[in-house]
Design a protein that fits this description.
alpha/beta, 2 domains, 12 helices, 11 strands, binds iron/sulfur cluster
């Protein structure tokens, strides 16, 4: 990364806690930055996701005071998420739409600066080929970010702002040479993604097909795919009735977990693994495209990498 950006990030660290992809043993993980030199600019997909910065795995929503629910404070310092690749920006754009009226999410978002990044170097996630994610300027206007750094070769780059906050921070940091891109909504002028529409059509007619019964025998319903997915956002609400510490908590859920879809009286809609896995795919490739005109999968490949029994989303989709 060139000197101008290094100086800019060092200045940013005076105001923000920086988080970025970094080498962590054999993998790349998103972690707090202790030294700007540790940031990984290779464009490799981090193993973990950015969603925990906006949707913590466990979050207190309400305290109970004098028998009434009182909103808990979201205590999040100012954070700069640095080096968010195009695939993960797409995932954050979806979360932003889903949680547009969620005060907890939005309070965190207000306190976070998102700095996207694309390099021209080969990226491992491109092999998943579920959707194409090359950096192009007309893609940026459909993504939510504050600042974006496009690196074309060592030392050669172009900088964009995607919000007033981004513009302000760039100017304050002494970076004048940038282009402003206004968010134009998630759908491109050419219309919704054709591959997304095709997958939606195929998925709609796939219930009961052999693939889901085959997966029933293999999948162990551990939920690792959904917990590690940057777009999975289902959650559970849990009330503690401890009289000394009553609280309502929101925590990450997964359609693979045993209590998912369990209702009072003991009924459960998703009572087999094949129903659970079908539901997971149906949500991503039918319901989310229907509600948001965006795919519920951004093709990062994390689910395929973490699945302990080797289920690969790209292979499942080919069969569908
Ligand atoms: S990670 Fe694999 S085994 Fe676990 S729930 Fe997902 S598909 Fe099933
Ligand atoms: S490839 Fe898997 S982990 Fe990545 S967005 Fe799609 S479903 Fe989620």
């Amino acid at each position: 990364m060139n000197n101008e950006i290094q100086v800019f990030l060092n200045k940013l660290s005076e105001e923000f806690f920086l988080f970025a992809p970094q080498q962590d043993g054999a993998v790349i993980n998103i972690k707090e930055v202790r030294d700007i030199g540790d940031v990984d600019w290779s464009g490799r997909m981090p193993t973990n996701t950015w969603k925990a910065l906006f949707l913590p795995a466990r979050e207190k929503m309400f305290d109970i005071s004098d028998g009434r629910l009182v909103k808990s404070k979201t205590s999040q310092p100012k954070i700069a998420a640095i080096g968010v690749n195009v695939v993960d920006l797409k995932a954050l754009t979806l979360l932003e739409l889903v949680f547009s009226r969620d005060v907890y999410y939005q309070e965190r978002r207000c306190n976070t600066l998102i700095i996207g990044y694309s390099s021209s170097w080969p990226n491992d996630y491109k092999k998943y080929k579920i959707f194409s994610h090359n950096f192009e300027e007309d893609i940026l206007e459909h993504l939510i970010f504050d600042i974006f750094i496009a690196q074309f070769a060592v030392g050669r780059m172009k900088i964009y702002s995607g919000s007033e906050k981004g513009q302000h921070i760039l100017e304050e940091g002494g970076i004048k040479d940038y282009e402003h891109i206004e968010f134009a909504g998630p759908i491109s002028e050419k219309g919704p993604d054709k591959k997304m529409l095709l997958l939606k059509k195929k998925m709609e007619s796939s219930q009961g097909k052999r693939i889901w019964h085959e997966l029933n025998k293999i999948c162990i319903a551990c939920g690792k795919c959904s917990i590690n997915c940057p777009t999975c956002f289902c959650f559970d609400l849990e009330d503690s009735v401890d009289p000394d510490n009553p609280e309502r908590v929101r925590k990450w859920g997964s359609c693979f977990y045993n209590d998912f879809s369990l209702v009072a009286g003991g009924g459960k809609e998703l009572d087999t693994v094949s129903k659970k896995i079908f539901f997971w795919y149906y949500h991503k490739f039918v319901r989310i495209p229907f509600e948001y005109m965006m795919p519920g999968c951004v093709g990062c490949g994390r689910c395929s990498k973490v699945c302990p029994v080797g289920i690969k989303i790209e292979e499942v989709l080919k069969k569908v």
